[in-house]
Amino acid sequence: MYPEFSWCPTDYDPRFRPWYSTAATNPKIIVLVIDVSGSMGGYGRIELARDAALAVLDTLTWNDQVGFVLFNSGVRDSYPITACTDANRATMKTWAENKITPLGGTNFIVPLEEAFSMIEASTSSACTKAILFLTDGEADFTEENYLYVAEKSEQNNVVIFTYALGDGKSQQFYFQLKSLRHEY
Fold first, then answer.
1. Hey, is 53 helix, strand or coil?
2. For residue 69, which phi and psi values (nearest 5 degrees)?
3. Which pTM was predicted?
4. Which pLDDT band holds residue 86 (cuts at 50, 70, 90)?
């Protein structure tokens, strides 16, 4: 009791407990689209992206499904949308730790097309669907590309969250995609 006892453990976070995340949200399909271009190798950005991916995996439960798209000048690698059971989570963590490494240029539209294809191919329609887009760089992203992403987002009821790592980000891209968040 206050003031005699102060309880503030540093290693306990309820957001990483299955009972919290299951009660706080409904089942989700999440595709992490992660920039692994050469510029991500500087200033610890690739480590930030890898740590973010691992943290997202830790918050998901068996009700959720997750996939990965790693991109540079094209889709470098992907992991199919998979149920986030304990065994699958361990496999995905190992995959992410080994595959999220920097190499190559940057192209935004190709990995987003791949993410939408993965979501469209998934069999669960009652889930909340989201794309988590992590990048540090600029890429050619035309008005036509934006309209395509906006249309696919609306068609598939997908929310896109953008995360900028570093200071090389394109403000226009982030503000455009930020406007794609739909209200439910």
1. helix
2. -130, 120
3. 0.79
4. very high
